[in-house]
Design a protein that fits this description.
The structure is a homodimer. By secondary structure, chain A is mostly helical. In chain A, a hairpin with a 7-residue loop joins strand 1 and strand 2. In chain A, helix 2 packs across helix 3 and helix 6 packs antiparallel against helix 7. Chain A is about 60% helix and about 10% strand. Chain A contains seven helices and three strands, in the order H-H-H-E-E-H-E-H-H-H. Chain A folds into two domains: about 80 residues, Arc Repressor Mutant, subunit A (Orthogonal Bundle), CATH 1.10.10.10; about 80 residues. Chain A has a two-stranded antiparallel ribbon with strand order 1-2. The interface between A and B is large, with 61 and 61 residues. Strand 3 of chain A pairs antiparallel with strand 3 of chain B, so a sheet runs across the interface. The first copy, chain A, binds a DNA duplex through helix 2 and helix 3.
DNA sequence: AAGACATATATCGAAATGATATATGCCCAA
DNA sequence: TTGGGCATATATCATTTCGATATATGTCTT
């Protein structure tokens, strides 16, 4: 998905500045769609405004930096619905942890153990984040994707805890550890 | 993760051409790490060879295009292990389907239904692919990540089937459908 | 009073994508 | 038998995106 659609989707839930869109696309559930940078968001907003999909107004409060607040137009809403009515692309899943797991035999046991601990922590944080954001919203669609995400991550965590020993045993024994002979 | 590490990881399991690396990074379990294009793989291989992490030899068979086959060197293996010993970055998950789900209320019921059917098909294909590739390999690390991936996708599919009606009910009733009045 | 942090916009080099060009050989169907 | 489609193979390039940095202001803490 491109940044245009992300901006339109976020602005469809309320007006926002480029800065806020960037924060949301990195720190909130919007991060499940695309992760965008300032360098892609600001040009996308300018172009969308020129095309009439967005309008903007400046908010000036003395002392504070001027805020350029964008709002979606009917044309923008049309483009958003039109894009979402096309068949969605395949989900993207990329994991550096899985690379380490696949290559466990090349690594020291301690390295693998740390990578697993690290990932368990990440999954626990993710679960807490999803739980919190689900409780904060009344929006049904957002609640649904939160429920889906929670179930998936919960199962991922469960499997990892139940199968970590098998993975650790593939790694090279650390120097201070005893390992049964072949 | 960058393309360099992907190339080293793949070549650590055996020599290959740029073309084969691209195919593997798109079509096999290597796609869980990064998805790379020709435009990033060829320059990465050239640079790695200059740096002494790879060697190459040309294979010429009459009639066939010349193959530039790359092999990993000890230096390359060192860089690979070194990179994998750092703490892995967070997993990346991006889903256009979840955007559609979140925005279900804006869309027609038929659109949402198709998106769900489509995703169920994708998950089923993915499960079959993981099962097949797990059966084809004897490599324990590869088997472990296949088992992990299978468990995660299986649960994802199960949840989706069990909760699709709730999601569909958020969408706008299609014109030919009856919906109970508010 | 200073330093860290958050808000806010903007730009830019480097990296990566996605598409296209070029070339060869093989296989199958009209 | 020939021609189209497909697979192999390398290479390039415009466009997109990232990640870092610059600039500015205000607040909060120590």
């Amino acid at each position: 998905m491109n940044i245009r659609t992300l901006c339109l989707a976020i602005l469809n839930f309320g007006q926002a500045t480029g800065y806020e869109i960037k924060k949301m696309s990195s720190d909130t559930h919007y991060a499940y769609f695309v992760d965008a940078s300032f360098g892609s968001i600001y040009p996308a907003l300018s172009k969308l405004e020129v095309e009439g999909c967005l309008t903007s107004h400046e908010e000036r409060e003395p002392g504070k930096p001027a805020r350029k607040v964008y709002s979606i137009t009917d044309k923008g809403r049309l483009e958003l619905v039109s894009h979402m009515s096309d068949a969605p692309k395949k989900d993207i899943f990329k994991s550096e942890f899985l690379l380490i797991a696949m290559c466990a035999e090349m690594l020291e046991r301690e390295t693998v153990r740390k990578a697993i601990d690290n990932r368990i922590l990440q999954l626990e944080e993710e679960l807490k984040f999803i739980k919190d954001s689900s409780e904060e919203t009344e929006h049904e669609g957002t609640k649904w994707i939160a429920g889906y995400g929670y179930a998936c991550q919960e199962n991922s965590l469960k499997y990892l805890i139940e199968n970590r020993e098998k993975l650790e045993s593939l790694a090279q024994a650390s120097s201070q550890e005893l390992e049964p002979a072949e």
